[in-house]
Structures are given as structure tokens and as C-alpha cells.
Amino acid sequence: MDTFPSMEAIRDMLDDIQEDLPPILFEELNGGVLLLPEHKLHPESREEDKLFIKGEYHRSRILGRQIIIYYGTFKKLYETKSEKKIYRELKKTLHHEFVHHIESLGGEKDLEIDDAIRLEAYRRKKS
Fold first, then answer.
1. Is 121 buried (19+), middle (13-18) or exposed (0-12) by CB count in 10 A?
2. Are 40 and 4 in contact (CB under 8 A)?
3. Which of 17, 61, 78, 117 has the fewest CB atoms within 10 Å, counting from its CB?
């Protein structure tokens, strides 16, 4: 039996998390928050030490601004975890992507720099 929450249940969790956020955070997020079924690996992911992407913030002149959450990644990483743990990780990921959004609106890149530092640590890490 598959105990991981369905995509619909995860979508409901994301909706609950978003309802607690102030409306101002959604300004100019015209693409909204999308939940995609697949998992995503970072292009530099190694087979022996996979680097999964849980969420991404996208901005484009054509498509605008949106947050993407990867259901498949959450399923691979948290398949045996409790719904409470999954909810906490979803919340942490969504908040992380909203920080990217707010920083983008303000012309800041602190979180991008932090992410780059973490990626560099991954590159240097021995498997």
C-alpha cells in the first residue's frame, strides 16, 4: 500500500500553507504556485549522492513569476515520513521560494547567493 499522500492531498496542504501567508506576498506572482507530478534532479546531481530539487522560483518576461513544487521529489525524499513531517518540509520549501520571489521584486539576491554556497558545498562533498 502506498502511504504517501496523493497529489491532491499535497495540493491541499500547499493551499493550507498559502492561506496563512499575507496577501502582499502574492503580488506579481502571476503564475501562482504550481504542483507538478514529476521529481527533479539538479543538473549536477551525482548518482551516488542525488541532489533533488523540491521547488523552484521562475521569473520570465513572457511567463511572469511563478513557484513550482515537485510532488515526485517530495515522494522520493519523504515517502516513509509522517504527514506532519511532509507538511513541515512543504512549508519550508514554499517559504524558501517565496523569499526568492520577494528578493526578486526588491532586486536582492541574498538567497540566490546562499543557494550557490550550498551547491558549492555539494560539489566539494565526497561521496
1. exposed
2. no
3. 61
Backbone angles phi, psi at 21, to 5 degrees: -90, 145
For residue 92, give the amino acid letter: K
Q: For the chain, what is the largest distance between any 2 Cα atoms, rounded to a whole number of angstroms? A: 47
- Helix or strand run (H / E) with residue 59: strand 55-60
Ordered domains of the chain (ranges, CATH) = 7-124 (3.30.2010.20)
Q: How far apart are the C-alpha atoms of 98 and 121, rounded to whole Å?
A: 23
Cα–Cα nearest to 94, from 66, 117, 119: 66
d(CA 116, CA 38) in angstroms, rounded, equals: 24
pLDDT tens-place values along the chain, 127 residues long: 468 999 999 999 999 999 999 999 999 999 999 999 999 999 999 999 999 999 999 999 998 999 999 999 999 999 999 999 999 999 999 999 999 999 999 999 999 999 999 999 999 997 5
Cell numbers linked to 2:
502506498
